[in-house]
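dude i think i finally got it to work??
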Amino acid sequence: MKPIRLGDLRELLQSSTFSTWWTEHGRAVEAFREARARHEDLASQSETMLFRSELAQRAAVEAFSRAGEVEEEGSRLAAEGQRLENRALELVGHYEEQRFRTSDLWVRLGGAERALEERREAVPRVKARKDGARARAQAEAAAAEAERHCKDLRDHYQREDARRARLWEEVEASWGSSFEQSLLAAERSAEARRVRRAAERLFQEAEERRVRAKRLAAEAEAALQARAGAERRRAALLAEAQERFGCARGEAFLYWRHPDDKRAAFAVALADDPDDANIEVKALGIYSVARQRGVAFLEPAREGLAPGAEEGDLRFEEYFLGPRKGVRRDGEGEPPSGKGSGHP
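look at this
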C-alpha cells in the first residue's frame, strides 16, 4: 500500500487504465451476484422438489396400504355374501321338503274332509232305515271319528304350512342379505382398484419429482461452480488492482496510505452502501479512515491532514450521541504526526 495524494488519487480513478479495470470488476461482481442468486434459487428448488417427492412417496405408500385394507374388507364381504347364499340354497332345500309335506297334508286333509262329508250325509239315511238304533249309532260314531281325524289333519296342516312360510321368509332374508353383501363387496373392490391406481400415480409422480430434484441439484452444482469462477475472477481483479495501482485490497474498499499522516489512509468504495456505514457510501467515493477505526468511521476525503484519533473519536461520539457538555481542553490527545497542514 503506497502513499498517494488526494489529487493524484482522483486522477488515477479517472484514468482509462482504472476505468477499464473498474468495468471488468463490475462485470465480475455482477456475474458473481447472478451466479449466487441462481445457485441459491436452484438449490432451494431442488430441496423443495425432493421434499415434494418424499411427500408423494409417503402418500403412495399410505394409499397402497389403504387399498390393501379395502381389498381385505371386500374379500370379507364377498365371503359373507357367499356364506349367506349357500345358507339360502340350503334353506331352499328344506323349504322344498316342507312344501312336499305340506302338500301331502293338504291332499290328505281334502280326502278326510270328503270322507267326513260322506259320513255326515250317511247319518240321515241310516236314520230313515228300519234296521234299528245300532246302525244309527255306528254311523254317528263314524262321522264323529271322521270329524276328529279331519280336525287333527287340519291342525297338523296349519302347523306345517306355517313352518313352510317361515322357511320361505328365511330364504328371502338370506338371499336379501347375500345380495347386499355382494353389492358392498363389489363397491369395495372398485374402491380398492381406484385407490391402487391413485397410489401408482403417486409413485410415478414421486419418481418424476426425484428425477427433477436431481436435475435441479446438478444445475445448482453448475451454478455453484460458476459462482466460484466469478469469485475467483473478482479476487484476481482485486489482486491486479493491488499490483497495478499500489493499493491494499479489501472486499468493499481499496486503500492507499495518506502521504502526510501515517495513521490515516484513503479508502475508495467498491460499491454503494446507503445503510451500513456511518455515512452514505457511494461507489468510487473517496473517504478518509483512521488506523484505529478503519471503515467503521468514514469521512469524505479532504485536502490536508486526516483528523487525529481523539478528534475522530469526538466526531464519532457527536455524530451518534449528539452534543456533549463542557469544553475540550487544548492539547488534549496526541497531536497528529506529519509536517503540518500542507496541501497534497
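The beta strands are 248-249, 253-257, 264-269, 286-290, 299-300.
im so relieved honestly
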